[in-house]
Amino acid sequence: MSPVGFFDTHAHYDDERFAAEFAMDANGRHYAGTDGAISYVHDCGADYICNVGASLPSSHASLALADQYPFVYAAVGLHPSDAQRIPVGMEEDALSELREMARHKKAVAIGEIGLDYHYDDTDRARQHWFFDRQLTLAEEVGLPVVIHDRDAHGDTFALLSRHNVRGIIHSCSCSAEMARQYVEMGFFISFSGPLTYKNAARVREACAAVPLERLLLETDAPYLPPVPHRGEMNHSAYLPLTGEAMAQIHGVSLAEMLSITRENGCRVYGITPD
């Protein structure tokens, strides 16, 4: 149980793994499936969760979860890998669908969007087109963006610099210097389970470079679980483990860090805290 309530600013509870695999006996209750996972992590201290879309179906699913749970909010967008799967000729239809979803009362961001160069078969031109158009959409609807950047730091920064947007650098993996540049641009910097990994010195350096008022915590659940849960399905109840690592880097208590990042999450997403 967390010492204070916290905000998991990036999770994917619509992922089929939660429906198929989650089961937990705790607090005198049996929790199972997607509903069980969300109820369990809320009982463990997750005051707020932003469920982040990566495709059109997952964006719709994120809005459905936000409708179902008062403490869940949604981001809608096309992850770079999913954007490449939009059929040729249907690009504008996909963007129109996102624009309509962004009008939902609990849609708090456009994301996750960005660039991913990890795989050799990446269509970079198509990724750039969708990223640019979704940044324009965020400008049009007045929402922050949630940025996915994998092995594409320079191009991601360059495209963001051409738009008047603010938001979140999700699961930060960039250098300390680039993190500082993003902060100067008005972005919040979010860290997940890799902050706890032994070989993640670069991530910890970036975290140390970010002022407290721009830090966020996330799980990216069910992905990127923190130590000592690597290899398991991640969920929001594990977020304080990443919070502890962040607190040690910045010389504050876990309770202080969870409270600071909770407030920051509400601020970037435009949520009035309870």
Strand content: 15-25%
Which of globular, elongated, flat, extended, rod-shaped describes the shape?
Answer: globular
Q: What's the CATH C level?
A: Alpha Beta
Taken together, the total number of domains comes to: 1
| Mean pLDDT over the residues | 96
Please state the second-level CATH architecture: Alpha-Beta Barrel
Q: Element order, helices and strands?
A: EHEEHEHEHHEHEHEHEHEHH
The description of the largest β-sheet is:
8 strands, parallel
Helical segment count: 11
**Largest beta sheet: strand ordering:** 1-4-5-6-7-8-9-10
Instruction: Give the structural class.
Output: alpha/beta
Q: Approximately how much helix is present in the residues?
A: 40-55%
Stretches where pLDDT falls below 50 for ≥5 residues? none
For the record, give the distance between the C-alpha atoms at the N and C termini, rounded to a whole number.
20 Å
Can you identify the CATH superfamily? Metal-dependent hydrolases
